[in-house]
Structure formats: structure tokens, C-alpha cells
Design a protein that fits this description.
Oligomer: heterodimer
CATH architecture of chain B: Orthogonal Bundle
Number of domains of chain A: 2
Structural class of chain B: mainly alpha
Shape of chain B: globular
Helix content of chain B: over 70%
Radius of gyration of chain B: 16 Å
Distance between the termini of chain B: 33 Å
Number of strands of chain A: 3
Radius of gyration of chain A: 24 Å
Shape of chain A: globular
Largest sheet of chain B: 2 strands, antiparallel
Strand content of chain A: under 5%
Order of helices and strands of chain B: HHEEHHHHHH
Number of strands of chain B: 2
Structural class of chain A: mainly alpha
Order of helices and strands of chain A: EHHHHHEEHHHHH
Strand order of the largest sheet of chain A: 1-2-3
Distance between the termini of chain A: 17 Å
Number of helices of chain B: 8
Strand content of chain B: under 5%
Largest sheet of chain A: 3 strands, mixed
């Protein structure tokens, strides 16, 4: 095949495909909304707009019992092997493995769904643009639709975009089993034992704490601005207010942190939180880790040799 | 805009990961122990500011502030941005685990450069502070957009369409970012000028 192939389809096919994608997206959004509503009815005072990282740390599953260091190495390694694949089919397989991981870790699917939706805007850009802008190569298959035949959809572009979407979803699905199955301090301790400087681990924990404090602060300031009649418009005035708002957020955060840090030092803080973390390595840790890495390697081999990419 | 997993070729993802690890190690070395809480503050503020939306015509854009982070932290800015991005991807799935290095380079290098620019040119008057602050804020975003385009283009000519769209989407953000940064710097100059000194130890 040296020439590009072309084919024309009725416009209705394209409309149907777009409609189907839109419906799926809306359905996911709706599911998430109802799920988080149900959550909120039970817990009045906690604000769930920022998801906690380690919400399900108390559970019990294969992933919960896995040593944190092994889990980090195995799933990070697996993620990189997944990203190295090229075909949409291997991306689909990786997605199924990700789903399996969520299932095995006995985690609620709603939180993984939230992660997928967070990426949907960025990924939709690829799905929309890539088929139209992929450069036609010999052997490519071009689709046109009656009525808009000046637009040529390159199927190779579509398959590239689908591979990207699949890989992104596969890695995103792994995030919940990786992070939610141990408390964050424990995960950070695992990172430190793997060679991340202790300073950095402390910073992750501190910054994670501050995020919630500052969000609260930002929200309170925004409420105050609203009460005083501030309206967001496209104007210089709005930008000036936002600039001052950001500046005030910095000033308040610095002052508050300074007080907190003084208090921490007064209580004997010397650069680390004394949190006893016990690590024990068993045969199952090695086995589980080897299993994931092997699966990743198999996937990559399947992608490169079987599909011939 | 954060790059998500699976977009970049594996060699670029790994290469930028190694590069950002090296710069982060340098950045950690530049940061004294007692400054860590303050770096954590800016990390958290960087995170929070990405949730602040500024209206722009019919839509709104959210702030990125790589430039401002550089202005506030100097050499420690890269560490703050790397950790902010890590937390963003852990909490919200903005960006991705395997693309973390690329995202950190995209935002962190502009932050370092803008910090340097601000330190060299800020002078003594409020006018000059505001001017250079705005320049750093806008320039940081522009540079980040350019790096994003470069990273996307590493995927080959099929990615050029997406690259152009991403560049276009950053143009309005660049203007908003520059103006907001200028106002923030002007506010800080009047209220707490020691925050702009980039000497974290002395700022307390």
C-alpha cells in the first residue's frame, strides 16, 4: 500500500459517535454527582470538594497488606511500562488491568471515576484534534462524511489519540490502589526509605496539610469579598482585586505558618515527625511485585512484537 | 495545562524525569532546613491558586503562577513546583505520574528564570517592582507555554495540531497572569516587602 485510502460515510455516523461520547461523559458525571451526594448526607461538617488521598487506608485487601516500598516500585514500574506501549489495543488491556487493581484493592469506583473525569477535558482535545491534523502517510485510511467532505478524518490519528486516552486512563486507575491503600505518612515513609531525601518527605506532608488550611482561608476570604459586593467580571478592577487577594493569601499563609513553625520547634521538632512505621517484607510482597512487573513487560512485548508497532 | 500520562514518547518522559530530578536535587541543596515550612507554604499556595478562576469573557481561566512562585522563592521554586504538581496529580489527577518530570520542567524552569530576573531587576521603587513582577508573571506563563509546545512537538508531526491549540489557549492566560502578578507584587511591596527579598531565612 503506497497510496492513502479514502472512504465516505453518511454524516449521521459522525453525529451518532459524537452523541455517544457525550452521553457516556454525562453519565459518568451524573454517577459521580449522585455518589458524592450520598456521601455528603452522612457527613455534614466535612467538605469533600478536595478528595483525601488516603481515604481507604483502613481497609484490608491484597493491596493494603502489600509493603509500601514494594507497592511504589511495582506500580510505578508498571506505569512506565504501560506508557511505553504504542497501540490502542495494549492501552485497552492496560486499562482492564487498572480496573482489576481497583477491584482487587476493594476501593469505591467513584473516586477513580473522579480522576478519569478530571483528565477528560485535556484528553478530549486529543480525540477531537488528532484525527483532523495527523499528517496523511502512505497506507493511511482517510474518512470523510457526506456534507462536510472538506474535513478528512485520518484513522491513524484517531488510533494515536485513542492510545493516549487509554494509557492515561490506565495509569489514572492505578493511582487509587497505589495511594489510597496506605496512610499518606506511611507512603511518604516508604518513599524516604527508597531514597527520597527526608526534607522532601517532610515537605510533602506539610504542604498536604497546608492545602486544606489555605483552601479554607481562601474560601473565607472569597466569602468576605462577595459579602462586600465583589463581582467577577472581565475587567481591570477584577484583576486588581484578584492580585490583592492572592497577595493577601500569601501574607496570611506565611504569618500563620511562621506561628505554627515556632510552636512546632517549641515542642521539639527537629526536621522529622516521630512516627513509628514498621515495615516487614514477606514472600508475598516479592511475588506480588514480580507479578505486576512481569505483567507490564508482557504487555510491552505484546505491543511491540505481536502487534508489530 | 498539565500534560497527562501517555502523551509523551517514553524516551521524553524518562529523560525529563531524570532532568527534573537533577534540578530538584540542586534545588533541595539550596534550601536551608528552617526554610522548608515556607517552601511548603508556597507549594500549597501554588496548589490553591490553580483552583482560583479568573473570568475572561464567556469562560474563565485558572491561574498557573509559575512566575510568582519564582519571585517568592528563588532557587527553591523548582522544589515547590515539583511538589505542588505531585500533590495535584495525587489529589486531582491533574497531570500524571509518568509525566510529572515533564510538567515540572515546563513550570519549574520558567519559575527559576523569573526568580532570577526579578532578583536582578527589581530595584527599589514600587513602580519598578510592579513592572518587573508583571514581566516575570507573564513571562513565566509564556515560557511555560513554549516548553509545553516543545514537549508536545516531541511526539512527532502528528502532534503539531494539538500543539498549536495548546499555544493558542495560553495566550489569554499570559495576559491575565502578567496583570495579576503585577498587582500581587504591588500588594506585597506595600504590605510585606520582606516576602519579595527571596532570602527566606531573613523574611521571618
Amino acid at each position: 500500500m503506497s497510496e492513502t485510502q479514502a472512504m465516505q460515510l453518511p454524516l449521521i455516523y459522525l453525529l451518532l459517535a459524537v452523541f455517544l461520547c457525550g452521553t457516556l461523559w454525562w453519565l459518568a458525571l451524573w454517577t459521580l454527582k449522585t455518589a458524592s451526594h450520598r456521601h455528603q448526607e452522612g457527613q455534614q461538617e466535612r467538605d469533600w470538594s478536595v478528595p483525601l488521598i488516603d481515604s481507604a487506608a483502613g481497609g484490608d485487601s491484597l493491596f493494603h497488606r502489600w509493603d509500601v516500598r514494594f507497592k511504589l516500585v511495582a506500580l510505578l514500574g508498571f506505569a512506565f511500562l504501560v506508557v511505553a506501549t504504542r497501540s490502542p489495543w495494549s492501552a485497552l488491556l492496560a486499562m482492564l488491568l487498572g480496573l482489576l487493581a481497583v477491584r482487587l484493592a476493594r476501593l469505591p469506583f467513584a473516586r477513580s471515576l473522579r480522576r478519569l473525569l478530571a483528565m477528560s477535558g485535556f484528553l478530549a482535545m486529543f480525540l477531537l484534534i488528532m484525527p483532523l491534523t495527523a499528517v496523511p502517510h502512505p497506507g493511511d485510511f482517510l474518512l470523510t462524511f457526506s456534507g462536510i467532505d472538506f474535513l478528512r478524518f485520518n484513522l491513524r490519528g484517531l488510533s494515536l489519540a485513542l492510545a493516549i486516552v487509554g494509557k492515561a486512563c490506565a495509569v489514572a486507575l492505578l493511582m487509587e490502589p497505589l495511594l489510597a491503600t496506605a496512610s499518606l505518612p506511611r507512603t511518604v515513609e516508604g518513599l524516604t526509605r527508597l531514597g527520597v531525601p527526608e526534607k522532601v518527605g517532610q515537605m510533602i506532608l506539610l504542604a498536604h496539610r497546608y492545602i486544606f488550611v489555605f483552601l479554607e482561608e481562601a474560601r473565607r476570604m472569597a466569602t468576605g469579598m462577595q459579602v462586600r459586593g465583589f463581582q467577577r467580571r472581565t475587567s481591570m478592577q477584577t484583576l486588581r482585586v484578584m492580585g490583592n487577594y492572592l497577595g493577601m493569601l500569601f501574607v496570611r499563609s506565611f504569618e500563620r505558618t511562621h506561628r505554627v513553625y515556632d510552636a512546632m520547634q517549641a515542642r521539639g521538632y527537629q526536621g522529622r515527625f516521630p512516627a513509628p512505621a514498621y515495615f516487614s517484607v514477606g514472600k508475598s510482597d516479592w511475588l506480588h511485585t514480580a507479578c505486576w512487573l512481569l505483567l507490564g513487560l508482557l504487555l510491552l512485548c505484546f505491543d511491540r512484537f505481536w502487534l508489530g508497532n | 495545562m498539565h500534560i497527562s500520562d501517555g502523551v509523551l514518547p517514553i524516551s521524553v518522559a524518562l529523560g525529563s524525569g531524570v532532568a527534573s530530578l537533577a534540578i530538584a536535587a540542586w534545588s533541595v541543596k539550596q534550601t536551608a532546613n528552617e526554610d522548608l515550612p515556607k517552601v511548603a507554604v508556597v507549594t500549597a499556595s501554588f496548589f490553591v491558586s490553580s483552583l482560583i478562576h479568573v473570568p475572561l469573557g464567556p469562560t474563565s481561566v485558572h491561574l498557573l503562577i509559575p512566575g510568582l512562585v519564582g519571585v517568592l522563592l528563588g532557587p527553591a521554586a523548582f522544589l515547590a513546583i515539583l511538589l505542588g504538581l505531585l500533590l495535584q496529580s495525587l489529589l486531582f489527577q491533574f497531570g500524571g505520574l509518568t509525566a510529572l518530570g515533564a510538567n515540572a520542567l515546563m513550570m519549574g524552569i520558567p519559575a527559576l528564570l523569573c526568580g532570577l530576573l526579578f532578583k536582578r531587576l527589581r530595584g527599589d521603587t514600587q513602580k519598578q517592582h510592579v513592572l518587573v513582577g508583571g514581566l516575570a508573571g507573564g513571562g513565566g506563563t509564556l515560557l511555560a507555554a513554549a516548553l509545553l509546545a516543545l514537549l508536545l512537538a516531541s511526539g512527532g508531526e502528528d502532534f503539531f495540531g494539538v500543539m498549536k491549540l495548546a499555544l493558542l489557549a495560553h495566550l489569554p492566560v499570559f495576559v491575565v497572569e502578567g496583570l495579576v502578578s503585577a498587582f500581587t507584587v504591588s500588594f506585597l511591596f506595600r504590605v510585606k516587602p520582606e516576602l519579595l527579598a527571596q532570602q527566606l531565612g531573613a523574611a521571618s
